[in-house]
Amino acid sequence: MSFPIDRPRRLRKTKTLRKLVRETSVQVDDLIQPLFVVEGKGIRNPISSLVGQFHLSPDECALEAQKIHQLGIPGIILFGIPNNKDFQGSGAWDKDGVVQQAVREIKQLCPDLLIITDVCLCEFTDHGHCGLLKGKEVDNDSTLELLARTAVSQAQAGSDIIAPSDMMDGRIAAIRTGLDTAGFQDIPILSYAAKFASAYYGPFRDAAQSAPSFGDRRGYQMDPANYREALREVELDLDEGADMVMVKPALPYLDILHEVKLRFERVTAAYQVSGEFAMVEAAAEKGLIDRKRVICESLVSIKRAGADFILTYWAQEVANWINNGEFDW
Fold this sequence. Notes:
Blueprint: H1 15-21, E1 31-38, E2 44-46, E3 54-56, H2 58-70, E4 75-81, H3 98-109, E5 114-119, E6 133-134, E7 137-138, H4 140-157, E8 161-164, H5 171-181, E9 190-195, H6 202-207, H7 228-240, E10 244-248, H8 254-264, E11 268-272, H9 274-285, H10 291-305, E12 309-312, H11 315-323
Parallel strand pairs: 1-3, 1-4, 1-12, 4-5, 5-8, 9-10, 10-11, 11-12
Antiparallel strand pairs: 2-3, 6-7
């Protein structure tokens, strides 16, 4: 009876040996923490649809950002929920809007923390869609000016990275032109380039109070079945001036993420969205999975597929695990 000479199991024998030869690792520097900002002071209200996440007033958001910075996490992404919404979503570009307030307060406490600001109108419009309406349709071209105005307002408040998530055609060029004209040539754009019309966004829409009041967003977000179109979207955004691109959601679209990184060789992010988060938390609550191992494995899979950094609601918890040498499976 012959035995194999090459035995891959030799390198799996112990935990220490497995860690020595491990090909993919997740570091604290790979993580971005999303935060939800509401108007007011001293507000820290739990979000029922996102366990462990909160609606934070700008002052509380700054304190939370300070904790995040102390963990070594390089940045946060902000989503604003105003008290008042209108047809245009004018709170998005208001110099005293909830996001702009939060950016200024965070910069006072944590000047070195990277602040990414989401650029979209859905959280600010009374109809919940991502742009101006003509009848029941989102009008692409008239929306572009408002997105650019929002990006400039956020940059003026102190945002470090502008992240448009609206999926209007031509928005990267419009935002780049707006930023450059306003003197913000050095502010990078992180484009939600391949953002799919996903059912995984449910808990976020509750948290951000941004569900459409009619219809859905399949007329502008991507069809989940389309692979080549996703690559075309990424190519267009890079051609228009995007500095970084994002794939959203992460786990259901690892094939897209992998191909984007291989083909374009540009900085590529992935968003581990609210539905991915909520499913793990729900399964763990029922005792069906090992929560910590599943979280670690999911993040490793996203990193292995090609993400340079990951937006995840577990960023702070995972950073603690990594800092304490407890990120493992």
